[in-house]
Amino acid sequence: MDLELTSQQKQHQEQFRAFVTQEMAPYADQWDQDERIPSEVIQKLANQGYLGAIVPSEYGGPGMDALTFGLLCEEIGGGSASLLSLITVHGMVCQALLKWGTPAQKTQWLPKLATGEVIGGFGLTEPNVGSDAKSIETTATHVDNAYVLNGEKKWISFGQVANLFLIFAQCEGKPSAFLVTRDRPGFSTLPINGLLGFRSAMLAQLLMKDCRIPEDHLVGKIGFGFSHVAGAALDHGRYCVGWGCVGGGQACLDACLYYTGERKQFGGFLKGHQLIQQMIANMITQIKAARLLCYHAAYLKDKGDPSLIMETSIAKYFASQMINQVASDAVQIHGANGCSSDYPVQRYLRDAKIMEIIEGSSQMQQIIIAKSGYQNFLLEKRKARRHDDATQS
Q: Which domain holds residue 36?
């Protein structure tokens, strides 16, 4: 695996960093307090091609390779975790359509998603259903060449402003996926405020009461909703979140390197105290380890390697654990200042906790990783047994 960025990837990375430095970092704390991101900021993100980053050129997107997209998520994650969640869920809708959408659905929606004319929302979680996503309670009934949806979704990032939702519902007793536009009769949203983290992600609850959608808004087949459509989307989401955690961790480290070089205690700068040095060293090591795991996932993604799903889960799991420890240490290093809105590390810590929950909790990642580990172990045993049988014969 080559860890050296190409000249084009380095150029993209510099562009991403400049955008975050100029358009995001100075305002992220205010967005957090306001619990919203201005529409003009989202438009700037769209104008740069970042919303439709993974959309191929044939549908009007830049068609970024996996590593370049990861670098984008890293930089955005370091500027605003809330804005990262827009990149994440919008990309999840794009990925689901790229993988399972009909030619007509791709032609109709991907160009609009690529330009930001349409903002995508991902409607899986419900008031009574979280990790056990295949047990969703929202229903879809086939009636007269249409589907009628009834149910609720909760904790939907950018649900207050998205206008195309990928909604998962039970149809004929099987999890299925549907496209629902905001303007459909019977569809409404309620804002969710006062969250621990991701405060400016404009979360919402989605309400569907006899919401009628065209028959051709089914994505994939009946019963493909969770195993295929959501699976493809969630794998993309975990990849994005893993990289975003690396960016958030780096932002914590940068804040601490600056602070410890300015703050004096006991007659010297904080950076001269060995216990501070220990925390900084642990931060650097953990961030580098998480970044390498994300690089590995990017390498496999570009290759189309089947082991990608497990490796992406490993990267997301480790990176989300990492950022929680790094953000906690960042607040500790800042002391009482770290608990103040005058310093961004308090936001980093609040946002970090959400990273362990979204796109599959840490516990769900552990289950995926462990199951894959057992499967690989049994596969290797079978290979060894076949080799021994062949040798003996």
A: 7-119
Q: In whole angstroms, give the CA distance from residue 37 to residue 160.
A: 11
In this prediction, residues 246-269 reach a mean pLDDT of 97
Identify the pLDDT of residue 251: 98
Q: Can you give the pLDDT at residue 388?
A: 67
Query: What's the CATH code of the domain at 141?
Result: 2.40.110.10
Interatomic CA distance for residues 282 and 329, integer angstroms: 10
Residue 386 has pLDDT above 90, yes or no: no
At residue 29's C-alpha, the angle toward residues 25 and 34, to 5°, is 130
Tell which residue, 148, 171, 151, 167, has the closest CA to residue 159: 167
Active site residue 75: no
Q: Please write the tens of the pLDDT for every residue from 96-122.
A: 999 999 999 999 999 999 999 999 999
My answer on whether 114 and 128 are in the same domain is no
Query: What's the pTM value of the predicted model, to 2 decimals?
Result: 0.94
Q: How many CB atoms lie within 10 A of CB 46?
A: 19
Judge whether residue 389 has pLDDT over 70: no
d(CA 254, CA 9): 22
Q: Are residues 132 and 80 in the same domain?
A: no
3-class SS shares of the chain: helix, strand, coil, % to 5 = 60, 15, 25
The total number of structural domains in the chain stands at: 3
Q: Hey, what long-range contacts does 2-8 have (CB within 8 A, 24 or more apart)?
A: 2/299, 3/292, 3/295, 5/67, 5/71, 8/68
Q: Check whether residue 130 and residue 250 sit in a common domain.
A: no
The one catalytic residue in 40, 172, 359, 380 is: 359
Residues 203 and 186: their CA atoms lie apart, in Å, by 19
Spatial neighbors of 320 by CB under 8 A, at least 6 apart, are 241, 242, 245, 352, 355, 356, 362
**pLDDT at 387 (0 to 100):** 66
Residue 329 neighbours by CB distance under 10 Å: 23
Looking at the structure, tell me whether residues 67 and 43 fall in a common domain. Answer: yes
Query: CA Rg, the chain, in Å?
Result: 22
Same domain, 150 and 79: no
Same-domain status, 97 and 170? no
Residue whose tokens read 């007793």: 173
**Phi, psi (deg, nearest 5) at residue 148:** -115, 120
Percent of the chain, pLDDT > 90? 89
Tell whether 193 and 248 lie within a shared domain.
no
